[in-house]
Design goal:
Elements (H helix, E strand, L loop, with lengths): L1 H4 L4 H31 L4 H8 L12 H13 L3 H11 L7
């Protein structure tokens, strides 16, 4: 019954697709920033802005890439669902209230 009525529900499918999109946007931004920082030793203006969201927990260029990625994943994993959705929408160009 659960497989037929709950897991196949259209609303649930839409929420899951939205979650994948949200995570994709956040991962692309934060992992991209960590990758650039690790490989070049500095960040583009865009990635500087992304890293600024992490604050004092921003990885350093000297860190192993694995540790930088873990820091990014920890930051994203610590977000509430609502904050993650809002941030991903804002990163995608949609401002609150739009």
């Amino acid at each position: 019954m659960a497989r037929e009525r709950i897991f196949q529900n259209e609303r649930k499918a839409k929420l899951e697709i939205g979650a994948y999109t949200t995570l994709g946007i956040l991962l692309e931004a934060f992992i991209g920033a960590a990758h650039e920082l690790h490989h070049t030793g500095h960040s583009s203006f865009k990635h500087q802005r992304v890293l600024a969201l992490i604050g004092e927990n921003t990885p350093l260029p000297s860190w192993p890439l694995y540790d930088s990625y873990r820091r990014m994943l920890d930051f994203i994993g610590g977000m509430t669902d609502h904050y993650a959705v809002d941030l991903a929408q804002e990163m995608g160009g949609r401002l609150r209230g739009d």
